[in-house]
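[INFO] parsing input record for Nucleoside triphosphate pyrophosphohydrolase family protein
[DEBUG] input buffer:
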Amino acid sequence: MDLDEYQRGALRTAAPRDKRNELLHLVLGLVGESGEIAEKFKKWVRDLDSDESRIDRADIAKELGDVLWYVAVLADYLDLSLDDVATANLAKLASRQGRGVLSGSGDNR
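[DEBUG] output buffer:
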């Protein structure tokens, strides 16, 4: 499956674009799902002494799937192809790596 195919599939379960506050819903959903991943890792640090063998990978995979859904639907809402977003991101990172600024900070490096 390519990313645009995933994006089309995600849209089958998305609310209509013209639903009131849908853009805000998508942004907050993305932040919320990302926060759920952070929360799981916080508990992993607190309760499991950061033992990597005890990470619940299946649970994290589900949360990553939720993040991916929101990214895909938010990109579509903004008329962006998920394939294009991913391609541009890899090109940006390759450029930074080639210029020796991969580990710097800020978007414009």
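[INFO] The two ends are 32 Å apart (CA to CA).
[INFO] shutting down worker
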